[in-house]
Design a protein that fits this description.
103 residues; 1 helix; mainly alpha; rod-shaped; single chain; coiled coil
């Protein structure tokens, strides 16, 4: 019984072949899963890039709006200063006018 028969060797060969086929199938599934994971990573990277550009645009919009608000504020303050100056000038003109009317 020390010698194995050809039939026993064929059975062992078939079992080993089935095991190898099973490992090959697992390897193919792992490769597909890795490819899927790579695709998911690429998609997330695209989303991050898009989000980054959207955030940059939003930040620029806020900065532009802030600049416009500051300009508007400065213009309003300048206009109020001019109004005050004109009111003062009108007041002086009225006072001068009253002096001439008294005379």
């Amino acid at each position: 019984m020390a010698q194995e028969t050809i039939e026993d060797l064929n059975k062992k060969l078939k079992i080993q072949s089935d095991i190898i086929k099973g490992y090959e199938k697992v390897l193919r599934l792992n490769e597909q899963e890795l490819a899927n994971a790579d695709e998911i990573i690429r998609m997330y990277e695209q989303i991050i890039d898009y989000s980054r550009s959207e955030l940059k645009e939003a930040k620029e919009t806020v900065q532009a709006s802030s600049m416009v608000s500051n300009l508007s504020r400065e213009e309003l303050l300048g206009a109020f200063d001019k109004i005050r100056a004109l009111e003062d000038a009108n007041k002086k003109l009225r006072e001068e006018s009253l002096k001439f009317n008294k005379d």
